[in-house]
Structures are given as structure tokens and as C-alpha cells.
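User: Sequence in, structure out. Go.
Assistant: Echoing your sequence, followed by the C-alpha cells.
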Amino acid sequence: MPAPDADTADEPADLPAPARRSSVWRGQGPVVAAVSVGGALGASARYGASLLWPTHTGGFPWTTFWVNVVGCFVIGAFMVVITEAWAAHRLVRPFFGTGVLGGFTTFSTYAVDIQRLVDTGHPRTGLAYLAATLVAALAAVWLAVTAVRRVLAWRRRR
């Protein structure tokens, strides 16, 4: 093996330039911020509803039920509008869909409510709540999607 040339032995090897890291504000930063702000607004609205219409121990959790049903209706309508009728800004869906509506609807509280009803001796109410929320939430999405699509079709024909 030949010895390195004396003139080039002390020179640094040609190394590739370090990759430039894009700023977080050019990547996912704005999306995370939009979801966070929207989530805070949605969760605050849900909390406000729970203060206005509290649920009594052992009673059917009507507030959480209606919050989830209304939230599912709105997400159904919203998704049709932004995918079929309106070219929304890239942050509208994360802000409103994931943030506001994700913070407003509360399927974790739904699960806790069911567990609490079972633990306090109200398993029938818990089972009714479990089934009613599932059926009503899915029906709300279907109804919203169907209604908004019909309205959009009617407006296009005008």
C-alpha cells in the first residue's frame, strides 16, 4: 500500500456538507400549534357544557352524550364541506377537526362514565349509555354527511 502523499496527509477529506434542518415552523410546528389552540377551545366548550348541565351520580350522562352526538354531527358536516366544496387552508382541518372537535367530543369521558355507572350499581344505565352513544354518534355523522351533500347538490343545480 503506498504511503499517503505528504502534501495531502494533513488536508481534511472532502466531507459532505451537514444537512440543513428545516425550522420547526416550516414543518409540523404550525399544525401542532393549530391543534393545541383548537383543542383548548373545544375542551373549554365541553367543560362549560358540563358546568351548565351537570350529571347526577347514577344518572344518565346526558351532557356528555349530547356533546359527543353534536360533535359527531359537526365533524360529518365539516369533512364534507372541506373535502367536497371548499379548498380550505392547510391548518383549518387540524385546527377545527382535530383541535376544536377533538377537544369538544370526549370519548374518554364516555368510557369513564360507563365505568362509573357500573361501579356505582347502575350497569343497565351504563349499557344503555354505551349503546345509545355509539348508535347516536354514528347516526349523527351519517345524517350530517347526507344532509350537507344534498344541500351542496341542490346549490350546484341552482
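User: And one key feature?
Assistant: DSSP finds five helices and no strands in the chain.
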